[in-house]
């Protein structure tokens, strides 16, 4: 489920940055959140 959220956030980041030409801090914050969620899922998956 978290990988789905990561995928959605990355797609939104790409759309906001490329298609809509928005370069605000919010778009980059989406990328950071996607990376953090992905790393959390990666580390939790290895412990289980």
TrEMBL record:
InterPro entries: Lmo0937-like (IPR043727). Keywords: Membrane, Transmembrane, Transmembrane helix. The chain crosses the membrane at residues 26-43. This is Lmo0937 family membrane protein.
